[in-house]
Structure formats: C-alpha cells, structure tokens
Design brief:
The complex is a heterodimer. In chain A, strands 2, 4, 5, 8, 9 and 10 form a six-stranded mixed β-sheet that branches. A four-stranded antiparallel β-sheet of chain A has the order 1-3-7-6, with no helix packed on it. The mean pLDDT of chain A is 91. Chain A is built from no helices and ten strands. Chain A is mainly β. By secondary structure, chain B is mainly beta. Helices cover 0% and strands 50% of the residues of chain B. In chain B, strands 2, 5, 6, 10, 11 and 12 form a six-stranded mixed β-sheet that branches. In chain B, strands 3-9-8-7 form a four-stranded antiparallel β-sheet, with no helix packed on it. The mean pLDDT of chain B is 92. The chains are: A mainly beta, B mainly beta. The interface between A and B is medium-sized, with 25 and 24 residues.
C-alpha cells in the first residue's frame, strides 16, 4: 500500500520567497505530524494534527510558519518570507490515531534557501 | 521539557561485532520509547518500540529494553552486518502534555565494515 507521500522532494528558492510543502498521509490515518531535520538542530517537532481537534502548534519556530490540514487528509506546510536558516529536510509522518502507535514517515522535502 | 540523549557518532564496527548505542531520556510522564533508523537515501523507519517499563522491543536482530530505573533504552545487536550501516535515532513520545509528538535524540551514525 501507499506510504506517506511528500512533494516536492526537493525545493530550491530564494531568500524572502514563500514556499508550500505538501504531505499526503496514509489513508485512514487520523494523526499527522510535521518535523524538521537540520544539521544544527537535529529532528524537531513542528506541528501535530489529530482528527478535527485544534492542532498542536507548539513546535513552530516563528509566525512565518503555518500549516493546514484539509478534510482530515492532505496537509500543507507554508513558510513565508523564507530565511537561510529555514534550509532543512521537512518530514511528514502519520499514524492511525493520536496514541503511542508508531508514526510512518515520508521521504521528506529537502528545502534549500539561497 | 522532554529530552533524549544518545551517544555521539560515528560508530565504526567490523562485521559480526557487537553493537551498543546508548540512549537515555528525561520525561515528565510515562513515555513510550522508540528506535528509528534512516538508511542512506531513505526515509525514517521504525525499528522497534517499547511502551512501558521492562518491555523489550526487538526487530531484525536489534533489541532494546525500557529501563525506568536508569531512564535508558539502549540499542543492541549481537552481530552487525554491512547492511546495518545507517543513522539510528532514539525517540520518546509522552502523552502528558497531550498529543503524540516525538522527541528525538541527535542520531548516531553506524558504519559497518567488512
């Protein structure tokens, strides 16, 4: 079956531009997570969606970052006015529900800010 | 807040050697513990997990035991293979604060040589 799908796989953009990263979770998974993997910070939690509940945004590093999840499925992570420190691999994961079940990760989007 | 500490890499071993990667954690509640693996050019994959004290997770010859008294979850394998070369991440999820977000260690790169 299909795993977590992320697009694009690579994105290069100029400083100051906005970017949108997409995540298509495994069908039927109600929980969706975004993480960031960067050289200086390791793997960091960004945001968590569970069903129709209000998302946990506690990991978003600044108000330039936002995320939406439409229809309980696809999610988009938006970074406005990108900065060089935003360069990282952005990972999406999903799990059947928001318990201690394992999270299934996509291959990530490698974002490079010039 | 929650944190995970794992040994610095890279760890370089000869094939068939014994592997230990140390992991200790700090959490406010009763976390579940995980080891994830990232093979070269691939996404994060769950390797094994344990959800309560004294549980042992195992997969592909790897084992880790949840030790509450020492707040540890060390990864072990009796005989490593070249194909085990990867980056290994220890992680915890703690529902105390709500949600199921993962807190990761910094990762340990393992290189296995013939």
């Amino acid at each position: 079956g299909a795993g977590v799908s992320q697009s694009p796989s690579n994105k290069v953009t100029e400083k100051g531009k906005d970017v949108e990263l997409r995540c298509d979770p495994i069908s039927g998974h109600t929980a969706l997570y975004w993480y960031r993997q960067s050289l200086g910070q390791g793997l960091e939690f960004l945001i968590y969606f569970q069903g129709n509940s209000a998302p946990d945004k506690s990991g978003l590093p600044s108000d330039r970052f936002s995320a939406e999840r439409t229809g309980g499925s696809v999610s988009t992570l938006t970074i406005q006015r990108t900065q060089q420190e935003d360069s990282a691999v952005y990972l999406c994961a999903s799990s059947p529900k928001g318990d201690h079940g394992p999270q299934h990760f996509g291959d990530g989007t490698r974002l490079s800010i010039l | 807040g929650d944190s995970v500490t794992q040994m610095e890499g890279p760890v370089t071993l000869s094939e068939e050697a014994f592997l230990t990667i140390n992991c200790t954690y700090t959490a406010t509640g009763y976390p579940s513990l995980f080891w994830y693996v990232q093979y070269p050019g691939e996404g994060l994959q769950l390797l094994l997990k344990a959800t309560k004290a004294d549980d042992k997770g195992s997969n592909k010859g790897f084992e880790a035991t949840y030790r509450k008294e020492t707040t540890s979850f060390h990864l072990e394998k009796g005989s490593v293979q070249v194909s085990d070369s990867a980056v290994y991440f220890c992680a915890l999820s703690d529902r105390t604060g709500g949600g199921n977000k993962l807190t990761f260690g910094t990762g340990t790169q393992l290189k296995v040589e013939l």
